[in-house]
Amino acid sequence: MNTSIFIFLLTIWFSISASNPTPTRSYEWDYLIFAQSWPITTCTQWKESKAKNTCHLPIDRRQWIVHGIWPTKRGTKGPFSCPSPIHFDPKQLNPFLDQLDAQWTNVHKNSEKYSFWRHEWTKHGTCASTLPQLNSIPNFFKKALEWNKAQNIADMLTQSKITPGQNGYHVEQIANAVKAVTKHNPMIECVFDSHTRESMISEIRICFDKSLEVIDCVQSHGINNNNSTNVITNCSLKKPIMYLDTVPL
Ligand SMILES: *[C@@H]1O[C@H](CO)[C@@H](O)[C@H](O)[C@H]1NC(C)=O
Ligand SMILES: *[C@@H]1O[C@H](CO)[C@@H](O)[C@H](O)[C@H]1NC(C)=O
Ligand SMILES: *[C@@H]1O[C@H](CO)[C@@H](O)[C@H](O)[C@H]1NC(C)=O
């Protein structure tokens, strides 16, 4: 080949590869976010998103339910949907289906029975499964059920006299109630409800290291800490947060 043509082609190749660097996907993560939801808020959002939506609430009306266990790399979200040989298999949940229904409830009644659990396994479980303690479908789901009992949000809040009803609470009160028990900073998520025009508590997240010890949560998932309060939250800091006992619809 003519040298100048060769150099010409080489130049093109370099400029293409420089402008389109091969993405180096990393499925590494640093810590786990254990997210628990307040089902009344989940249901409110679901019903407001479509008039025909219906809810399936846990039988125990004080029960905070599992949303998921999310492996997270510091400073970002995810990784998500990692390459894993383990494909979601609903049959593997059958031995503890009643516990899942009570503690990891699919509030979205008019959705496919296993859809919530399938989504959580596929998006997060496949990444978490690099940890020996979470390396199978039963281990992953059972760990969440165990943590839901050990990190009982309703009990933590009740100990600080925060109970579901029509009273609002300051987000710092809620964070302090959790921290009083876990000794570490949680992450607190609210949704603004367009119907009631109130800020409603939707999730409380507790973070764990790879030895499955509770640690301080750090900013992630778009939830910042407001430096003046040190609470990691996207709830309003000015308005009371509603912790309702019934769906306001
Ligand atoms: C808080 O963040 C979640 C997503 O993580 C979002 O769905 C929600 O609307 C946010 N709430 C507010 C009040 O901005
Ligand atoms: C808090 O401080 C950090 C670092 O100084 C900054 O990046 C962040 O934007 C601040 N957050 C708020 C809500 O002011
Ligand atoms: C942070 O919190 C303080 C005190 O509640 C509040 O005045 C301020 O507006 C908040 N800042 C942001 C960015 O939310």
TrEMBL record:
InterPro entries: Ribonuclease_T2_eukaryotic (IPR033697), RNase_T2-like (IPR001568), RNase_T2-like_sf (IPR036430), RNase_T2_His_AS_2 (IPR033130). One of its GO terms (molecular function) is RNA binding. This is Uncharacterized protein. The active site is at 67, 120, 124. The keyword Disulfide bond applies. Keywords: Disulfide bond, Signal. It comes from Psylliodes chrysocephalus. One of its GO terms (biological process) is RNA catabolic process. PROSITE patterns: RNASE_T2_2. Belongs to the RNase T2 family. Coiled coil: none annotated.
